[in-house]
Write a structure and sequence with these properties.
Largest sheet: 5 strands, parallel
Structural class: alpha/beta
Strand order of the largest sheet: 7-6-5-8-9
Order of helices and strands: HEHEHEHEHEHEHEHEHHEHH
Number of domains: 2
Helix content: 40-55%
CATH architecture of the largest domain: 3-Layer(aba) Sandwich
Distance between the termini: 34 Å
Number of strands: 9
Strand content: 5-15%
CATH superfamily of the largest domain: Aspartate/ornithine carbamoyltransferase
C-alpha cells in the first residue's frame, strides 16, 4: 500500500459530504497527497494548483481549526478563500438554501459548509454544480477523521491492525470514525454512556456489516484494553449547552486520564480533535504528556485540507 503518493486520484463523487463518499483507495491517496504537501511546505516549495480559484466558506457554527486551515490552505495552494457567516447573507432574511446554492455556484469554484443539519449540507450539494465539502455537521465531521488518519499513518506507519478506541460522547466524531472503519476495515471500539451513543442508523450498519471489528462498550476500561490509539472529544458539543451539568455528571467515568492509559498498550497514542475542556474529558497530565499527539493532529488539519481542496477542486467529477 502506497501512503506516499505524489498526486491525488480522480475522485468519483463531486462532493465530500461524509467519509463514505470516498472508497479506500481514495482515502489512502488523500492521505498520501497530504503527506506530500506537508513535505513541500516544510521544504519551502511553492505549489499553486488552485491559482485563480475561489473557495466559499459558509459557516453557521464558530470555528478555529476548520476555518483557519481551509483559509490558509487555499492561499498556500494559490487560490482565494471567502468567509461568509450565514447571518451576514440573505439566508438571514429567509432566502432559500436552494436559491443561495444556485447563485453561489455561479461565483465560486467550491464551498466548505459548516452547519448544524446534514440535510442542509446535502441540499446545498444537490443544488450546486461545484464541489461541496463538509466542514462539520451535527452528524458527521469527515475532514477531521481524514486528518486523524493521516496523523496515525505518520506516527504508526499505517492504520491496519491497530486497536483504535473512542471514549466519550457518541457525536459526529464517533459517527465519522464508524464510517471510516467500515470503509477501511479498521478495528474500532467505542465506549459511550447509555443514551449518549452514536447515531442509531450508523450503529446498526456497523453491527450488520462488521460486528467483530466495530464494537460498542459501556465500560471505557474494557474498550481501552490493549489500545494503540485512544480518541476523545468534548462531552458538550455546540448546541448542547443547556444540558451541560447533566452531561458532566454522566460522563465522569469516561475521562481520558492516566488510569485509562494504564490498561492500554505502553506506546498508546492519545488524540483529541480540540477544543479540549481540560479536567473534563481529558486531564492536563494526559493532554500534555508523552502519549498525546493532539497538536500534531491540529497541524495536520492544514495539510489534509489542502489535499482535499486540490483533489476536489481539480480532480473531482464536477457537474456542468
Amino acid at each position: 500500500m502506497n501512503f506516499w503518493a505524489n498526486t491525488p486520484c480522480d475522485v468519483m463523487e463531486k462532493d465530500l459530504l461524509r467519509s463514505t463518499s470516498l472508497n479506500k483507495q481514495e482515502i489512502d491517496e488523500l492521505i498520501g497527497h497530504a503527506v506530500s504537501l506537508k513535505a513541500k511546505q516544510k521544504a519551502g516549495e511553492d505549489h499553486h494548483p488552485l491559482q485563480g480559484k475561489t473557495l466559499g466558506m459558509l459557516f453557521e457554527k464558530p470555528s478555529t481549526r476548520t476555518r483557519v486551515s481551509f483559509e490558509i490552505g487555499m492561499v498556500q495552494l494559490g487560490g482565494h478563500a471567502l468567509y461568509m457567516s450565514s447571518r451576514d447573507t440573505q439566508l438571514s432574511r429567509s432566502e432559500s438554501i436552494e436559491d443561495t446554492a444556485r447563485v453561489l455556484s455561479r461565483y465560486l469554484d467550491g464551498m466548505v459548509i459548516r452547519t448544524f443539519s446534514q440535510k442542509t449540507l446535502e441540499t446545498y450539494a444537490h443544488y450546486t454544480a461545484i464541489p461541496v465539502i463538509n466542514g462539520l455537521t451535527d452528524l458527521l465531521h469527515p475532514c477531521q477523521i481524514l486528518s486523524d488518519l493521516m496523523t496515525i499513518v505518520e506516527k504508526k506507519g499505517g492504520y491496519q491492525g491497530l486497536n483504535i478506541v473512542y471514549v466519550g460522547d457518541g457525536n459526529n466524531i464517533a459517527n465519522s470514525w464508524i464510517n471510516a472503519s467500515l470503509t477501511l476495515g479498521l478495528n474500532l471500539r467505542l465506549a459511550c454512556p447509555q443514551g449518549y451513543g452514536p447515531d442509531r442508523t450508523i450503529v446498526e450498519k456497523a453491527q450488520s456489516e462488521a460486528p467483530a471489528r466495530i464494537q460498542f462498550f459501556d465500560d471505557p476500561f474494557e474498550a481501552a484494553h490493549s489500545a494503540d490509539i485512544i480518541n476523545t472529544d468534548t462531552w458538550v458539543s455546540m448546541g448542547q449547552e443547556d444540558g451541560r451539568e447533566e452531561r458532566i455528571k454522566t460522563f465522569q467515568r469516561y475521562q481520558v486520564n492516566s488510569s485509562l492509559l494504564a490498561v492500554a498498550k505502553q506506546d498508546v497514542m492519545v488524540m483529541h480533535c480540540l477544543p479540549a475542556h481540560r479536567g473534563e474529558e481529558i486531564t492536563d497530565e494526559v493532554a500534555d504528556g508523552k502519549h498525546a499527539i493532539i497538536f500534531d493532529q491540529a497541524e495536520n488539519r492544514l495539510h489534509m485540507q489542502k489535499s482535499i481542496l486540490e483533489t476536489f477542486l481539480v480532480h473531482s467529477r464536477q457537474e456542468h
